[in-house]
């Protein structure tokens, strides 16, 4: 199962998720994120990710905006560095700067 291209199958956003970049760590389980639609939202790191996945500034994440409060979102996934580079190379996150 050798793949010479180095391309990995990555988790892509569903219809209600957006790519986002973490701009600020607000403490606890909250971060400030800049979403691909241009909105700045407060992201909440759910308990299932809080102690298993460290989220730092400039990380690329998948965020799901709340239906009832658009200025907030749940963080659903964090991409590692090489995965974020692959997303940039494929043109998925051109609008995000990190």
From TrEMBL:
InterPro entries: NA-bd_OB-fold, RNA-binding_domain_S1_IF1, TIF_eIF-1A, TIF_eIF-1A_CS. Residues 6-80 form the S1-like domain. Keywords: Initiation factor, Protein biosynthesis. Belongs to the eIF-1A family. It comes from the Archaea. Pfam families: eIF-1a. Transmembrane segments: none annotated. This is Translation initiation factor 1A. GO terms for molecular function: RNA binding; translation initiation factor activity. Seems to be required for maximal rate of protein biosynthesis. Enhances ribosome dissociation into subunits and stabilizes the binding of the initiator Met-tRNA(I) to 40 S ribosomal subunits. The keyword Protein biosynthesis applies.
